[in-house]
Design brief:
homotrimer, 8 strands, Rossmann fold, alpha/beta
Chain lengths: 241, 241, 241
């Protein structure tokens, strides 16, 4: 049985994983879902990427979790890469789940299409506090395309504005790319949060891992809401020895 | 419950949708399948693209259908884009189902590989009436690859020669690209009617839509014959709010 | 009912197909799985590509098999292309199953990424007998990613070192590309034995066939071990009229 630590993406907090955790624990695993610094409702959103990373490192160290399978979703991929640099000795395997994998020296924003960059920039400028909130129409059509309208609405209500700075920070990832921790890429094939093709998750991001285990499932960027049981099963496959 | 209008592709007529309509109606929806001008057995094949579009506009207006989900398959995608320009106020959502989405000023022929262009040109020249009939071998291997031989034969018997002119007509689509009607792209992953990759349906065609809902299913270009029940279910997912 | 001849890939021998053969025969088909010259435990590994081809030709002629569906997996694709040149009159259809399809004049090594070329070259040099053995870590992560650890181990124990020369030999395939034998490409969508994208099996290799029947299933490069029943069903679909 494994110990999973699930790191959410933009606009989410740890509560997004509740149904997945329930399933993982029902099958005998341990699972934890910390909230990244600057994320979640009511949080102080004035954070940078280093603070995001540190909050996850602190969570794992405070709980003294070892031999963990560390999963990052979407933006969370940029966080677990840096967490692995800091406390790689506690990590059995990394799972990148429709996640950003940055080249050394890049930011998340460097890895999204120009029209999305422009949208995020505008949202951050208009927010007054350098956050951006995803418009519902984009959430419904491009993020949770596999849900019905009610689930699209109820899951949207769980989101909160995303701090802009962590996506702008350029990351030094030289150490990450020298780590020998085994890695998996879990890919939902109906995900259009990034447009498929030139800017897509796979194989663009996944191929940066070098040797990795590839696991696919159907579903959107938000299967933790639309298919948490199916997702839990694929997380187990991606995380096993 | 929704009102679906299903617009067929080349070589087909409205009867191709019968099993899909049966399923949609069995689940409480309304569904209609007009035959495009110049299509179907015994029709006058001397039509251009504008006449194809007008015939579908007339059908919808004559029946006074409103709040419809308008779906176009293959060549039918070029038709529903122009229908949406004409009577967008009657349309709740557009579904492009393994369909051509032309850039402004392009023709369908501009969007198929050179060797297929050459084949269609030859077929039209040899026909005597500027139509082209798809050879059975191509139908069986590249269009309905998921069917057994008997279904490949019986479905082929429902086809009729396709007028060449509508595929040559360059379409003004400036208005289409300014419409705010929600759009979905429904993609069958085993479709090789267009070769996958550089010339494929997805993401080449789909990405032209800007924001759209992406829905996938397994199956060939001709799942209305090989899996009509599965197709109907995905049409409902692609068409819902 | 069909007669299948299944030609294995690198590191394998005919015994890899046993569970697939059992299933094909249980559904009323005949199935054979010769071992390519220079392959299998204890074999003399000093062979070139022509000897590999000749061994399969001899097997089919000796057994006087006719009207066969000839399938090649991975490296086996390069073999069945040359077998088809030699005894095309005995072949009803070719199935390329996550298989190499070389352009005229190319070798297998020409069709793998530079870092894999370098690895194979190093393994062959260090072997002492110009063979290469796939490291277990690569087998487990990139070849049989859909198996649990026990199956990864037990299937690895069935492998044996692969002769290097057949992968270096440049093949004259002019005759192959003039054959009118029907062809199918069967593609497992989770296969990362070749990295997906620029160097991937599909559509890079498949598109070289011209007109072909495309059949997909989920699973890794090694579904003959991880899902032999599902593979047998797809082989039947790929091989039928």
């Amino acid at each position: 049985m494994s110990t999973f630590v699930l790191v959410h993406g933009s606009w989410h907090d740890g509560s997004a994983w509740q149904a997945v955790i329930d399933r993982l624990e029902a099958t005998g695993h341990h699972a934890f879902a910390p909230t990244i610094a600057g994320h979640g409702k009511g949080a102080n959103k004035n954070v940078n990427h280093a603070q995001c990373t540190q909050s996850i490192v602190d969570y794992i160290v405070d709980k003294d979790l070892t031999d963990i399978v560390l999963l990052g979703h979407s933006f969370g991929g940029t966080v677990i890469a840096k967490v692995a640099e800091a406390i790689g000795n506690r990590i059995k395997r990394l799972i990148f789940f429709n996640a950003f994998i940055l080249n050394d020296g890049e930011s998340l924003i460097d890895n999204i299409p120009p029209h999305t960059q422009a949208l995020f920039d505008q949202l951050a400028r208009e927010s007054g506090d350098r956050t951006m909130m995803l418009p519902f129409e984009i959430w419904r059509e491009a993020f949770i395309n596999d849900a019905d309208f009610e689930l699209a609405r109820s899951s949207y209500a769980q989101l909160s504005p995303e701090p802009y700075q962590p996506g702008l920070d350029k990351l030094d990832l030289k150490q990450f790319y020298s780590l020998s921790i085994p890695k998996s890429y879990l890919y939902c094939t109906d995900d259009t949060a990034l447009p498929q093709g030139e800017w897509g998750w796979h194989p663009k991001m996944s191929s940066r891992l070098g040797l990795f285990r590839f696991v696919q499932m159907s579903g959107s960027h938000e299967v933790m809401f639309s298919n948490p049981v199916g997702l839990a099963e694929k997380i187990i496959v991606a995380g096993r020895d």
